[in-house]
Structures are given as C-alpha cells and as structure tokens.
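Input sequence (199 aa), recorded before submission:
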Amino acid sequence: MMPAARESLLDAAYAALARRPWAAVRMVDVAAAAGVSRQTLYNEFGSKEGLARALVRREADGYLAGVERALGSHSEARERLTATAEWMALAARENVLVRAMLTGCWSERLPAPTLSGVPSSSAVPAQRRADGPLPSPGDFVHIVRDRAVAVLAGSGRDGGELARSCELVVRLALSCVAAPPGEGGVAELVRGVLHRQPV
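Predicted structure, token format:
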C-alpha cells in the first residue's frame, strides 16, 4: 500500500475517534472514509488493535517531531526549553491521544493499546514498528529530556545539571497538562523555574 493511503486510513480513524468512542468505531466506516476497501484496511493493519497501535504510534511520532521543532526554534537555551514546554502543553490540549500517552490516563472513549510489543507478522514495515513497544509516560519524559540535553549540550555546561534542568522543565510542562496554569501560562512558569536553574 502507498504511504499516502496508510495516512488516509489513520486520518479517517482519528476523525472517527473525534465523533464517537473507539469501541463504536467500525473498520468498514474507516475504510469507506479513506476510500479503500475493508480488506485493504485489514491487509495494512491486521486488526482494529493494529489500527489503534498504528494511530497511537503516529500521534507519538508527531508529538516528538513537534518537540524537535520547538528545541530548534530559538538560539537561547532557556527560550528553547520554554518553547518545548509550551508545545508539550499545546499538543496535549489539542490531541486526546497525546494527552493520554503523556499522562497514562486512557478514557473509555479511547483505544488503549498495550504498551508492550505485540507479535507482528505484518509485511508492512510501519506496522511492524507500530507493533513494537509503545512509549509509556515515563518513557516520554526521558525521550524529551534526552533530546533537549542533546540539543543544548555544549562547551562548559555540566551535563548532570543540564539533564536535571531539562527534566524539571519536562515534568513542569506535564503538570500543566494535568492542571492547566492560569494567567501567564506555561511560559511564565518555565521561565520562573529556569531563572533559578543552570541551563
């Protein structure tokens, strides 16, 4: 199958999820919305669980791509971390799957694929990847922290201090997902913390 058709199917599944609980999403409706046969959908994803895993994997990858963009958006380290925290909170506010992945709170409306890998016999490389282990909330903390450290590491910086500061920002952003801040938002909180942290 062409990658564009796979994306169309994932888009259709995400759109269906916005309208009804995952348990009520029917494979035949997803296939019809994407303009392919139900057999094509099953050939690509194997099952509804396979579709769910691929959808969650795609949203995780999109979230992490946004983290990379935020980390590259400024020249100053504090502003890079602030932009990253703002992206994390925004992505979680706008995408129910990202929010569930970051918090571990999967409502009954959402698919809840197991985080551990599942046996895959798929001939589709993207599906084999989706069938692998999915990141847990703790994994996301470490992935974002490590990416921030890799981008910000430079001459004269204490790696341990930098890692602690980056993890603090990531965890602060996640707390803003669970309990959104008031006036000033995420940026003001992060800047306040970073003012006292070596970055």
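Checked by second reader. The CA atoms of residues 59 and 98 lie 6 Å apart.
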